[in-house]
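Reference record
================
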Amino acid sequence: PASAPGPTPASQSAANNLGGALNFSVENRTVKRVKFRYNVAKPITTEGLSKLSKGLGEAFLDNTTKAKLAELADPLNARYTGKKPDEVIQAQLDGLEALFADVPPPKDNDKQYKALRDLKRAAVEHRASANKHSVMDNARFETSKTNLSGLTSESILTKIMSSVRDASAPGNATRVAEFMRQDPKLRAMLKEMEGSIGTLARVRLEPKDSLVDKIDEGSLNGTMTQSDLSSLLEDRNEMRIKRLVVFHTATQAENFTSPTPLVSYNSGANMSVTKTLGRINFVYGADQDKPIGYTFDGELSRPSASLKEAAGDLKKEGFELKS
């Protein structure tokens, strides 16, 4: 991959997408990887500003704020007189930032928290675009853990969380595990996995919002190096569980017809197929350690599907599940 952001502003050329990946540990069939990617920053559009303003208006319901938002959204506002379209956008964005500059981060209102985060991230990317800089698109720490075969649902959950407990913020894994126990759909997914063969779980961690802000600042002023970024992503206090993916892995000799959908395969005398059973993306709010929601897809996200059926489909094609 391309090099990570360099130590000078000159390295922040909009002509490049910056990214990197580091594999830093292999132990007992556990693979840990740090990955990050920078993309060319894009300026905010009029439509983007309208969306931001709407989100802020839905989160902050007091009449004073609503009146000021309406004033900023008015194209006949005197602050926009004589300005070019891009200058109007900048003026409105500046107005939104000024309006909420003194609002402390909400501790118990997730809707307000999200609206303010959306405003901050949009402003950061807009400034980066004006300076022809790149911005971090995503950064993550991944762990792939195999050998979940033959376990009870609680043992599966414990083993998955233990693989990242030392890499995520204290208490985050415990809160995610409790969230999964209490949610009927996620609890059912774990139940389906009981006693199964050939299962693999991959956990992805992501930086908390405070770390995202720190990375943004270092990237935009040109002081963030690849080593700095990797070190930050290894700070467990700044990381939280973002995604959990459960797979079925099976092998078959060559000259076979592969079932679909396939996630990946390796060519050779023995073919390996990985099929996604469940992909869970956790959503966070003001509390950066406790999920407030999630999205779920994959074989087990469909009511009629079961782990046994997924395994049966692979066996019909001549695959042998790995234990």
